[in-house]
Amino acid sequence: MRLATRLAAACAVTMPVLALAAGAAVLRLAAQDIHREQVAELRAWATELRPAVEDLPAMPPPGTGPLRGAAPGGGMVVEAAGRRWTTGGPPAADLPERDGPVDVRAGWRVWRGYAVSLTVPGAGPGRMWVFAPLGQEERRVRELRRRLLGVALLTVPAGAAVGWLAGRAAARPLTRLGQRLAALGPEPGARERVVVRFGTTEVDAVATLLDSTLDRYDEQVARTAQALAASRSFASAAAHELRTPLAGMAADLEVLQRHPDLPADQRREVLGDVLDAHRRAVAVLAMLRTLAEGELIGPDSFAELDLAELADVEVTAARSRHPTATFTLVAPPSLSYRGFEEGLRCLVTNLLDNAAEHGRTAETGQAAVRVEVSAGVEGVRLIVEDRGPGVPPAHREEIFGRFWRGPGSRGTGLGLALVAQQAALHGGRVEATERPDGPGTRFVVRLPWQGAAR
């Protein structure tokens, strides 16, 4: 059964039950009011008759004098000195010896009365009871019950109808939410969201929660798609780039196998080619792995770091890798920045290695690399420049593509691609220009303060 039907049915049943319960409570309260009203009337009647009875010189015979017709529809009993005078009222019976309201049962009939003490002339102290038949009260209650029943016969169906409509109206936001969910498109990220004000706090909260869940689902789907794309790219690039070194290694090993009697100098040359091809293959795989990992990095991998200290550590390491090159670092004592530490290390390392490799001067054949780290209003800036031949303007954009290598380059063609990737990951950019004070290449990396763009 649908929830809307359940709510409507529950309201349709509950409202008539509440109406009947309210009617029963009203009937009970009304009966109590009628009882109190009758007792008050009897008290007033007894109070009114008491002076007249006490002023009589002697009690007259029943049915005569002031006792005759004194209680139309009811009755009165006066008792003193062992004698009883009665007009109407219940037949002779034991009457309660107390003042106040009394009920007397005579057979199947109940009389409601009120007793007061008095002094009867010639008889001394006595008591007077005035009575009214309970049937009068019962008739009034029955009349009220009939009226309430008539009202209930009209209220119950009307209450059921109102309850049904109220239940349907209460469930309408849930129905609209279901329709909204059914209308969502199947494509992650391309569909509209649920958020619509349904006018019901609980339903609006569920809609907001569903939107949040869909956002997380879309994020996971996007990250999964990124991972698959990175895997495909890695496999394709590895197959493409490793084909040449592996083929060269296979050819060299085959030469060694077919010619075991090669001279020692030729054997060393062939083995050197095999080692160079192996190193190249390992370097390509490492670079490709780093590129693939960089595509999956999110803001949760970012942390506070000292960019000046990071640059100092990487410059020191570069001096060890390139002993013939000179490195100069210009940076503040410390520079706090929020970013992906491994990615920034990779960025600095590849810029330094690229400058040391391609920044050799024609005169000395050695590279002089200058590194500058600074902070500004918009973010931080990293400059790496050399005094080499420079990059032609036509290639200053191409050098950041994957597997792009200049003439005579011994690199993998992936270093500057990693630099561009990490700069973009941090919401920044990198550009290659000429040195302002002479020949050479100047790489400028600008990183905003806000961190990741994704």
UniProtKB/TrEMBL annotation:
SMART domains: HATPase_c, HisKA
Signal peptide (UniProt feature, chain positions): 1-21
One Pfam family it belongs to: HisKA
Keywords, sorted A to Z: Kinase, Membrane, Phosphoprotein, Signal, Transferase, Transmembrane, Transmembrane helix, Two-component regulatory system
Tagged with keyword Protein transport: no
InterPro entries for the chain: HATPase_C_sf, HATPase_dom, His_kinase_dom, HisK_dim/P_dom, HisK_dim/P_sf, Sig_transdc_His_kin-like_C, TCS_sensor_his_kinase
Reaction it catalyzes: ATP + protein L-histidine = ADP + protein N-phospho-L-histidine
SUPFAM superfamilies attached to this UniProt entry: ATPase domain of HSP90 chaperone/DNA topoisomerase II/histidine kinase, Homodimeric domain of signal transducing histidine kinase
Transmembrane segments: none
UniProt-recorded name of the protein: histidine kinase
Domain of life: Bacteria
GO-annotated molecular function: kinase activity
Nucleus recorded as keyword: no
Assigned EC number: 2.7.13.3
Primary site of residence: membrane
